[in-house]
Specification:
alpha/beta, Rossmann fold, about 35% helix, binds zinc ion, about 350 residues, binds guanosine-5'-triphosphate, six-stranded mixed beta sheet, GTP-binding, cytoplasm, GTP binding, 15 strands, OB fold (Dihydrolipoamide Acetyltransferase, E2P), flat, Ribonucleotide Reductase Protein R1, domain 1, five-stranded mixed β-barrel
Amino acid sequence: MTLEDLGYNSTLEDYRKEQNLDSFGIGRVILAHRDRYTVKTESNEFDCELVGNLRFTVTDKSKLPSVGDWVAISEYDDGKALIHAVLPRSSILERKAVGKLGQTQIIATNIDFGLIVQSVNRDFNINRLERYLTICNASKIKPIIVLSKIDLIEELELEKLVIQVQERIKNVPIIAISNQSKIGIGEINSKLIRGKTYCLLGSSGVGKSTLINTIIGEKMMETGLISESIDRGKHVTTHRELIVSENGILIDNPGMREVGITDASGGFEMTFDEILNLAQDCKYNDCTHTNEDACAVLAALENNDLNPESYENFLKMEKERLHFESNAQERKKKGKDLGKLIKNMKKSNNKY
Ligand SMILES: Nc1nc2c(ncn2[C@@H]2O[C@H](COP(=O)(O)OP(=O)(O)OP(=O)(O)O)[C@@H](O)[C@H]2O)c(=O)[nH]1
Ligand SMILES: [Zn+2]
């Protein structure tokens, strides 16, 4: 295996030379668990920790290694190494941190494509597809929609679902698959490119791990066995892994119960481009498209030129986004206020 099979490219190599990191080994984080990391190199897998100076100087958690990151390492023992630096990321997939207002959490980095998996039975929900789509678009990750478990429904029913999705979501490839009958697996395989990184996104139980197994044709990941523990009533999946295959790099992701919208303004525009195009013709610049007169969005809705469900989902996600933004601003302000307080305390202490 070469570093290129792992996703390495000339941009990373240029950076490595620029930063004089030649004396270090280069590898990719395939597993991150608290402060322990598994890093894969051309020829080996290392159990890694952060070098002290990195561990103690990082103030921003998002600067710490995540699954998908490229890192500079030094081996100090058999199979053990220290991480000295994280190389710049080409993309960051993140979500709103569960239970923490205004904070984000990195899911994975350096991803080229997002495979948004949704099963056609219970899980099927176009609003949720739009949500994942927005996250991909915001992170500059190319989305591919995978409808899974199609063995569970009739062909006609599937056709209807696909048309429903296409009506709402334009210009995103849709692949229908079954891990059981293996329909559609060939199509997925033909889309996967060696050296590109694919992150599987979707709710718990839609068949993500099974799909990875089907693609790589080996039983490498535990499936069915949902690796979760209950932490104060919250669902936490510890399982998170990056798998390198001839057909690209696959990142499995814990089922996301809550896919919160963060600062996804760019992604928002791409997902709801139809609505935002309409909005350019609204009379008021700050039109909320809910009750204003001369609102082009409401007009389109009235004329049946706009899908009402798409509109509802837009309003809901916009509200969530604004909510996240105000929480993030609040957090920033609190941080500043605390900084001021400490400064003032130090000042007054110095007087004595
Ligand atoms: N009928 C049917 N069942 C499937 C298919 N793919 C997966 N399953 C079953 O669905 C269940 C969940 O599959 P997983 O692959 O573990 O789902 P996951 O998305 O990885 O779930 P998390 O790891 O919790 O995020 C398992 O019991 C699988 O056997 C399929 O194509 N058809
Ligand atoms: Zn409007």
